[in-house]
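Key result, reporting period 2: structure in, sequence out.
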């Protein structure tokens, strides 16, 4: 994994483990990265960047554009723009592999701690 933070932007590359348990159930013989796992990665990377514990309160403008098969595309790039407004963290995110856009997401996280 690589993690680069510059001002209010995070760029991270994640290597997926195609043998992870989540892919055995989603779906057997045809693994697909679950959307909830992508959102969790965004949350965890945002927590790492801000040093704050977060809770997803609003997810808007979620667009799943391509399926991520970890056996074929095991490296994903996440680009996150972060802003803090009134005790909340707002993010604009894209997830892609190679030249393919897989997810666009705007979200608001409440700061827990």
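The corresponding designed sequence is given below.
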């Amino acid at each position: 994994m690589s993690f680069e933070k510059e001002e209010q932007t995070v760029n991270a590359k994640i290597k997926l483990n195609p043998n992870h348990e989540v892919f055995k159930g989603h779906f057997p013989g045809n693994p697909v990265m679950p959307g909830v796992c992508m959102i969790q990665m965004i949350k965890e990377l945002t927590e790492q960047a801000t040093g704050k514990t977060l809770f997803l309160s609003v997810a808007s403008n979620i667009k799943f554009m391509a399926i991520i098969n970890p056996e074929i595309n095991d490296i994903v790039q996440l680009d996150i723009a972060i802003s803090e407004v009134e005790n909340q963290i707002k993010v604009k995110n894209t997830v892609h592999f190679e030249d393919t856009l897989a997810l666009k997401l705007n979200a608001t996280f409440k700061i827990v701690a």
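The CA atoms of residues 12 and 19 lie 21 Å apart. The longest strand covers residues 100-111. This case is discussed further under Risks and Mitigation.
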